[in-house]
């Protein structure tokens, strides 16, 4: 299951970071259930993911917050009008000075709390306040007034037009009878019993019990305290008795107090699992880190990947239609023992380029091969064709970058002078122009250079044939020596033809080994936290961007254990920039065990995790087609 729609609200307890765990813990027969009920809809990350992937025939979303429910209804019924209102507020905010922005915020907050405006304006106020208030919280005082202070953000991300329109489209989906698939309610959670039966999956995501000192429960004026948590447990038991499958998420009190067994005691009759999640809303920046959260279910599923993976057909199949447990099986049965493709060994463009660049000079210098009158002929050639001097650095295997700096006049070649005390260094220039007239003294200096560095010996004694053959050998040797520097890129080199081939097929631009800030030049908004990061492959078409990273591990050390976590974090950061992410990794010694914890974790949390063979058999193309809507 994949979620391509970014939550349109910043929300305390939002489930974007926990989606992978939630999906992993779904009941085995979830696809057989017809109805989905979510009593505390919030930002709707889980609901939208299910709706986007067409999991159920009917959806009921609910929240006690009437203004939030109004927002959902306006997105469904009047998305263009809402976008117009938000755009007007955005323009007014961004054009205002700091003090005027704060004044505008409190003015809108007052209007929002008074509610004496149209449903569309009220919805636009909701999004505006959510994006500009402190930490994106929603909190009400005892009177029911929204009371979160101004956030002082310089350039908040107010909305994504295409995203809101897509959510509107999903909320307007209809069944065969022409009825809306999604019913939007504004009730207390304990009023939903009549909508729930044995054919229902219920996901409860209530206001969390605080996990930090000073944490808040005042989501609305009713204040969701421990008494309310107990009432929710009672509701949980009622719908459990009706045969519904239920999952409830909440904070883990043990993050604050190891002895706090509140939920362990409250839900002692049910299955409790602790999972890691990164919470984004915290009043102190340092408090935004990994903590455990609870997933409480009324079912136990032996299907889990940690237990066992059943035998599956490892023949080529659809990535998107294959369950993650089966993908693990396919992945581990088709791993590579090496990361080296044919293009790893020699980059033949390198010798071809330099031979083409110095073709005339090389052919001219051929006159010196086996020449017994080397000194005189060298001086004659240089006198008539001074640019032959520029090819000399290539003949003694100077690196490409050093040669380029010499050719462009950015540098001179400096050699320690061991023959004369008055000069410590000898300097040689290799950017000679065609019209330059070198003096006899300068020509003698270069002749002496060829003798001391051994080029005269090369010409008169070692070379048998054309100088081009020798130069090709030099370049191949340099390139082979450079393999140790591009060893880390070997897997990318092997994967590149597959990615480029797919991209060319669908008219997608491919950028390799560049920082994400490259996208700014193409009109994309990229946040500072990812701008300087380097990407193996960036795919671009119209407004869609995808990053594909490639890694090969030849051993089974600790690095792969850490790298999966880093890519999970990378995927989250990229999603915040509307960039899709896929990881291609391989290495039989590293990933050969299908029960490897980090591999299982990768398949729970990453949208797309493939090996080289899975890319070859068409799974990567399928993923690219989906994300670029081909």
UniProtKB/TrEMBL annotation:
Family annotation (SUPFAM superfamilies): S-adenosyl-L-methionine-dependent methyltransferases
**InterPro entries with a match to the protein in the record:** Ade_MeTrfase_dom_2, MeTrfase_D12, Restrct_endonuc_II_DpnII-like, SAM-dependent_MTases_sf
Keyword Transcription regulation assigned to the entry: answer is no
* Occurrences of domain Restriction endonuclease type II DpnII-like (ranges): 329-622
Q: Gene3D superfamilies in the record, alphabetically?
A: Adenine-specific Methyltransferase, Domain 2, Vaccinia Virus protein VP39
Q: What is its EC number?
A: 2.1.1.72
* Family statement: Belongs to the N(4)/N(6)-methyltransferase family.
Name under which the protein is recorded? site-specific DNA-methyltransferase (adenine-specific)
Species this protein is from? Clostridium frigidicarnis
Q: Organism classification, top ranks?
A: Bacteria, Bacillati, Bacillota, Clostridia, Eubacteriales
